[in-house]
From TrEMBL:
Cited SUPFAM superfamilies: UDP-Glycosyltransferase/glycogen phosphorylase
The protein's annotated pathway: Bacterial outer membrane biogenesis; LPS core biosynthesis
Lineage, uppermost ranks: Bacteria, Pseudomonadati, Bacteroidota, Bacteroidia, Bacteroidales
GO cellular component: plasma membrane
Keywords: Cell membrane, Lipopolysaccharide biosynthesis, Membrane, Transferase
Native species: Candidatus Avibacteroides avistercoris
EC number of the protein: 2.4.99.12
GO terms for MF: Kdo transferase activity
Keyword Membrane: yes
Name of the protein in question: 3-deoxy-D-manno-octulosonic acid transferase
Length: 407
């Protein structure tokens, strides 16, 4: 795997080259500088550490139910949590569910040996798409169990290509792979990987936890009143253009917009398109919220609780790289709408087939769908109930993983 090691070294070099010019590489490099000091200073010498690695924030949320269930069942164990991306580490570096949080050093043999010599985990969990060859090779050599959790495999991945022989060997390093679906297991069986168990996706457990812990937001209650509400979560400009055009010309409902990117320029762009009364969340009080038809959420951390105040959800990203988390909305029992780029997401495809979610491609398709959802009560209710049942029916992956491992 010489080419792999060269690629990792080039990535490492690129981070240093970009250090003076870009905030993300700068944060990553600075984080890597202190990893070993963090481990030396914070690791309890006689404690049993379970290591979780997540690429970024989304993978962390996927692994979080496992972390918290292990802590609940085994308070004597310690949790080491590592991230690859600054977008995960910077948000969760103070997460109180872990005893140590740090970056994962680049997957070079010297880094791997030094990291594992200091961390000394008793087992390791890699969430979804994390396949670091040198770490996995070294864990196997040291006899440390390594598990892949909530992983999904597709035929277009390198493991299944004619040139993927060397990459396939990485999968053999795992003690067991806990995959989301039968198709993943079949693909792995074709290349001789048989230590595989279908457990589902731990994200379902996570969104149920989030729903149970959702905050009551008095400002949202004032805004909603008795009006039906559409919640646009993690929206981007193409999503907002469609929704705002419909909102401006269809009174009788209220709109909450929680953009994926919150900066003043983008917020002003949204405001300039609105033709009905609006208020920004951070500048609202109960009276202003009640008088507004659109609530613009100009802060982070509230979206999962905001969904509970809606009758219909629109989840953004489907006109760009791909949709954001639709399960956070579906768990509340409402139909979910999104743009056309959803094919990589199993839950989106399955919810569409079940008639609990609906893709749109342009204003005409959005307008027609919203008209029907708003005028046909039984259709709105049945599609929302389908979405709710789908999430509840797919929960339980966390317990299946831990019971299989014996934790």
């Amino acid at each position: 795997m010489l080419l792999y090691d060269i690629a990792i070294s080039l990535y490492d070099l690129a981070a240093y080259v970009l250090f003076p010019f870009s905030r993300k590489p700068r944060k990553m490099v600075k984080g890597h500088w202190v990893v070993y000091d963090i481990l030396r200073q914070q690791r309890e010498s006689d404690a049993d550490y379970v290591w979780f690695h997540a690429a970024s924030l989304g993978e962390f949320e996927q692994g979080r139910p496992l972390i918290e269930e292990i802590r609940r069942r085994h308070p004597d164990k310690r949790i080491l949590l590592t991230f690859f991306s600054p977008s995960g580490y910077e948000v969760r570096k103070h997460y109180d569910g872990a005893d140590i949080v740090c970056y994962l050093p680049f997957d070079k043999p010297r880094n791997v040996r030094k990291f594992l010599d200091l961390a000394r985990p008793s087992m390791a969990f890699f969430i979804k798409y994390e396949f670091w060859k040198n770490y996995l090779d070294e864990l196997r050599r040291r006899g440390i169990p390594a598990y892949s959790v909530s992983s999904v495999f597709r035929k277009d991945q390198v493991f299944f290509k004619w040139y993927g022989t060397l990459y396939r060997k990485v999968l053999q390093d795992f003690t067991r792979l806990y995959v989301q679906n039968e198709l993943s297991k079949r693909y792995l069986a074709k290349i001789g990987v048989d230590r595989v168990t279908i457990v589902g996706d731990t994200r379902f457990d996570r969104v149920l936890d989030i729903m149970r812990q959702a905050k009551e937001l008095p400002l949202l209650e004032s805004f909603k009143g008795n009006a039906p509400v559409i919640v646009a979560g993690s929206s981007w400009q193409p999503d907002e253009d469609l929704l705002i055009e419909y909102f401006n010309t269809h009174p009788g409902f209220k709109l909450i917009i929680a953009p994926h990117v919150i900066d003043e320029l983008h917020l002003v762009e949204i405001i300039n398109k609105l033709r009905r009364p609006y208020v920004r969340y951070t500048k609202a009080n109960a009276r202003k919220a009640a008088d507004a038809d659109c609530l613009l959420v100009d802060c982070y951390g509230l979206l999962s609780s905001i969904y509970r105040y809606g009758e219909i959800a629109y989840v953004g990203g489907g006109f760009g790289a791909g949709i954001h988390n639709i399960l956070e909305a579906a768990v509340y029992g409402m139909p979910v709408i999104f743009g056309p780029k959803y094919q990589k997401f199993v839950e989106a495809r399955e919810l569409i087939e079940a008639r609990g979610a609906f893709p749109v491609t342009d204003y005409a398709s959005l307008s027609g769908l919203l008209d029907r959802l708003r005028s046909d009560g039984p259709f709105l209710q049945s599609s929302g109930e389908t979405a709710r049942r789908y999430v509840h029916g797919h929960a339980g992956a966390t317990l299946r993983v831990l019971e299989d491992i014996g934790l």
